[in-house]
Amino acid sequence: MTITSLITAFISGTRQELFFALAITATLSTLALLVVSVRAELAERSAPLTRSNRRASAARDPREALALVGDTLAATHNPAALLPVILRATSEATGAAAGRLLVGDEEIASVGVVPRRSSPLAFDLAPHGEHLTTMLLYPPRHGFDAESERLATWLASQASIALENAHLHHVVQRQAVTDELTGLVNRRRFMTALAAEIARTSRVEQPSLILADLDDFKLVNDRFGHPVGDDLLQAFAGAMQQCLRDVDVAARLGGEEFAVLMPETPLAGALAVAERLRLLVEAPLLVRHEEGISATASFGVAELAQGEDADEFLRRADAALYRAKAAGKNTAVA
Fold this sequence. Notes:
Blueprint: H1 3-12, H2 15-42, H3 54-57, H4 62-75, H5 79-94, E1 98-103, E2 106-112, E3 121-124, E4 133-138, H6 146-177, H7 187-199, E5 208-214, H8 217-224, H9 226-243, E6 249-254, E7 257-262, H10 267-282, E8 286-288, E9 291-293, E10 297-303, H11 310-326, E11 332-333
Parallel strand pairs: 10-11
Antiparallel strand pairs: 1-2, 1-4, 3-4, 5-7, 5-10, 6-7, 8-9
Helix pairs in contact: 1-2, 2-6, 4-5, 4-6, 5-6, 8-9, 9-10
């Protein structure tokens, strides 16, 4: 990833594309630093160990401790799974009698038995949510020597990089499937969920689909400005989430158009949800400068027909939405 390619991504791509480019560059830079560190260590050691005895050798070879963390990072980018591996590998490599991981004041992982009257080495790792993650390493009977302390510091710094990469991966992954304004899933993620739900309908009750469109949304933007229009979209997304179950998938397809996939839901049930949403929208969704800002929405509802694919399913729901618009808006048509 070169400077030229980053500039090209900025000029020709979206902000999300630039974010992806920066994420990839950061990851590659981190890997390059790890390679330099590991090569320096390898120059003074014998040939690499096999994967089968990697874990047992972590206590003797710091590069194997790092490899354990790397293997886990390759398998998962979940910090909850990565943190215990970091603690175990670092404790083994440094000969610590025990180790603890704290998120804020809460212990989330531990190894060994904490010795009495022992002062641990403390390392701050990457933040875990809103709280700082701290790794505590308790010394063996004769204490840590200088080399072990340096090794612990180095492994903690590499662990922080791995955790930052895991967090960055999570952010990039979430932005790839989430609508930035409303927090709902985006069209791409919704279509994936729709295809998956259709594929499993032979074993369960058919799903239903709701398409929703805010009526005359352009007039809201023209009268109050685009920031208020964005607030109204966010308020509508909040109303949707208020009416839906955890298994339902709500999405913003684009502009003022939204969709809801309702697994194992008959047409009548989905129509009742659409009507409840319609009444919520009709009431003022926003209050700005003591003025209530309300809107109306039209809804098209369809239940999956036998043998129907995603495109046909969406077309029928869209046809119902068109009929709702033609009937004077502010209504739900099944």
